[in-house]
Amino acid sequence: MVWVACVSSCASTGGGHASRVSAEALLEQAQAREVEAIRAQSSQAQAYAWLHCATLAHDAMAAEKAATETAAGLLATQCSRAFFDLMAQGAPIEVMAGRLSLGGVTIRVEFRGMPDSLARSVYLEPADQVSMDPLDGARHHHAGFGVPLVAFSLPCSDRPICRLYPPEGVFRPATLWLETPLAAVAHDDTPVLVVQNPVTQPEHVAGANRYTLAEDMSAPFAQLLERTRLKRLAWWGMIGGAEIGKRSGLFLLDDYDPNKTPIIMIHGLAGSPLIWARLSNAIMGDPELHRRYQIWHIVYQSNAPLLVERYRVQHYIDEAWHVLDPGSHAPARQGVVLIGHSMGGVIARLLCAQSTPDVWNAAFTAPMESLHADANDLATLKDVFQFKPYPGVDEIIFMAAPQRGSPSADGLLGRLVGLLAWRHIEEMAGLVRIVTENPKAIQPAVESIFQTGHLTSLTSLRPDEPVSLADEKLMPAAGVRYDTIAGVLPGVKPPGDGYVPLSSALFPGSATTLIVHSDHKVPNNPEAIAGVLKILREHGNSHDVVSSETP
After folding, report:
1. How many other CB atoms are there within 10 angstroms of residue 515's CB atom?
2. Is residue 230 within 8 Å of 241, Cβ to Cβ?
3. Torsion angle (degrees, nearest 10) of CA 446, 451, 452, 453
4. Which residue among 217, 331, 414, 505 is the one 20 to 30 A from 67 at the CA level?
């Protein structure tokens, strides 16, 4: 069977074909093809009928009558979906731009506004076939024209930005439909399968009519979560497993936009970005917030002392900016929001603080300049102990952050993990060499743990650890707003979430403080998520005011 386009007899929405048939007649023809598809005896006959139905209905979408316009859009979507499902047979379809044969039917694939993060070859899967279990059933989507899809490809390797994409792959929302070719390519009657980005191009124009595209923002994220191995790697990373270290860095959940404010999320001890699943989904599912913000996730190996972890996270952010904005001109560099859970909240505070001599003096009795050691080791030591507030950040949201340590870190499990973890901390190896060469320059209170190397993420969360006692006094720089969200469980003594006492999580000077009924996984709590969304709306609105007043 050969496809014959209605070049001379049909009205076309985008191609300007001579209109001899009314939109109402086109819709009737499309409805007749729908009946043919349902009754077809062969899959190929069914495929052509669905294809003909979709393109005829699409042509009818330019109707002047509202009733015809609406019915045509619904039928075009329905027939496009039926064609896709018939071709897919329950599996993702691999496509690339250009002519393509699907089940013996020739079509031309056209990508519109799809992001560069996707490879030339893309797998497509209907969004409603993606399980929402990783997001606890919370699907953020809206109805409209077209078939909402997940577009997936393996991450690229030919550009610096490729290393900022999750290694599991790139998952993006897409919307699909079928249409007849434009007048410019009228010599080619091959039907067009359109795959459009509903985020950057949320409308489709048919004649004088505008159709809002159907969109599912949660399905791509759910697919990413379904494929990740981070949960298992995170625990191994805390006790020295190397895989999470190889995976460490900053990763973009969205495509980079130089005009959107970054939200940088920093997980906690033995954690991973999985803790941010519900919150990230809620932000991306809120049209206002998704228009303002882009989400970046930090992955780090949580086995090192706090100051080392701060040094690592700063390095990951620096690397990302070097790739994304080497000229340092992007508006996105200003108004950055940090959200930190548990130890990640403490790291976020230290990222926005100015180091003091007290922090150095808690560990050393001599100035850095007097130490004898390898130049690289000394350079790392300087970066760890001497730092400035990270530029561009003006908001921190602390979630269950042990700002004054946690008694749990001093328990049996904490000590056991500490014994396992220390042997695998690269930065600590350099510190141990410095201590070995300068034994008289070390404070007695920390000499033994430096000499053994048993200073880890857990030991630095102990309430009595000397360096942490000094760095817990470091406050966010002037002009950085911070908000606190903490959890509390009934019957827990002292009051807290079972891991972080309320007295450690509550932070003086917070613009707002929210206490929710929750265990330590506060970012999963619906009330806490609502609290973050409220803070982000206020943050975004305040920046809109500032930008409108700035020449």
Report:
1. 18
2. no
3. 70
4. 217
Structure tokens at 211: 């159709």
Residue 214 and residue 147 in contact, taking contact as beta carbons nearer than 8 Å = yes
Three-class SS of 263-277: EEEECCCCCCHHHHH
**What CA–CA distance (Å, rounded) separates 546 from 120?**
40
Kindly state the tokens that stand for 314: 């700063």
One-character DSSP codes across 311-343: HHHHHHHHHHHHHH-TTS--GGGSSEEEEEETH
Q: How far apart are CA 71 and CA 89, in angstroms?
A: 27
Q: Is the dihedral of CA 313, 318, 323, 329 positive or negative?
A: positive
Interval 361-415: pLDDT, tens: 988 999 999 999 999 999 999 999 999 999 999 999 999 999 987 665 454 444 4
Angle at the Cα of 102 from the Cα atoms of 96 and 103, rounded to 5 degrees: 160
Q: What one-character-per-residue DSSP string does 53-95 give? A: HHHHHHHHTT-SSHHHHHHHHHHHHHHHHHHHHHHHTTSPEEE
Supply the pLDDT for residue 413: 43
Check if the beta carbon of residue 516 is closer than 8 Å to that of residue 525. Answer: yes
| Cis status, amide bond into 494, omega within 30 of 0 | yes
Nearest-angstrom CA–CA distance, 340 and 504: 15
| Six token digits for residue 436 | 């070995």
Structure token pair of residue 81: 């979906």
Cα 550 off chain centre by: 30
Which secondary structure element, helix H or strand E, spans residue 451, and what is its range? helix 444-452
Using DSSP's 3-state secondary structure scheme, residue 410 falls into helix
DSSP annotation of 478: T
Quick one: tokens of 483?
A: 């908000």
Q: What is the pLDDT of residues 429-439, one digit of tens each?
A: 787 788 889 88
Length of the chain: 551
pLDDT at 462 over 50: yes
CA angle 66, 72, 77 (to 5 degrees): 130
- Sign, CA dihedral 220-223-227-231, equals positive
Q: Which residue has the tokens 């809002």?
A: 212
Residues whose CB falls within 8 Å of the CB of residue 364, separated by 6 or more in sequence, listed in order: 371, 441, 442, 443
Residues 214 and 44 sit within 8 Å (Cβ to Cβ): no
Distance in angstroms (rounded) separating the CA atoms of residues 367 and 218: 53
Strands 122-126 and 93-95: antiparallel
Token reading at 521: 């996984």
Residue pair 304/456 in contact (Cβ under 8 Å)? The answer is: yes
Q: 550: which 2 tokens? A: 């700035």
Q: Provide the 3-class DSSP secondary structure of residue 338.
A: strand
- Gap between the Cα atoms of 224 and 222, Å rounded: 5
Residue 481: what pLDDT? 97
- 484 token code pair: 């606190």
Number of H helices, E strands in the chain: 18, 18
